[in-house]
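pasting for ref
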Amino acid sequence: MNTKVKKGKFVGTKYVKPNRHPWRVTGEGPNSYLEYSGEEKVSNKITSSLNASYESISASVGFEVSAEKSTRLSYRVKLTKKAFYTIQVVQGFKGWKFYVWQDVGELRMGTPHSGIGLYCDVSKRNVYQGEAVAYQFWTLFNKCSYRAKGKTRNCSA
């Protein structure tokens, strides 16, 4: 039976902060620089496929849900205070809700002894399977913070 995917609506932006190399760099100040520079591959994401094919979901939401994109980001900050600094790269995704229906069919057949004779009846209907969200990679952000006197502060503060 067929699975049908229909696009819903834009549901918002999701931010992901991978807490590992190469998405994070740290260093100590003062009188030095901390720099993040790199080109990374980021993949689009789906919360659930609900037995729908990637092709049908991609056609519905308008982008290739299994695609990967290379992106580059450079950021450099002067470490002015005696503190422990961190630059963390944040991935931004735009989310699109989609809905999945599946065709369900039923085949009924009569026998010569059923009282109504031989017959064949096929009924088909769409059954709602659920909704999920496909996330399209949008951009990278950087967040710089430092820790001094037991408190975490933004670098720009």
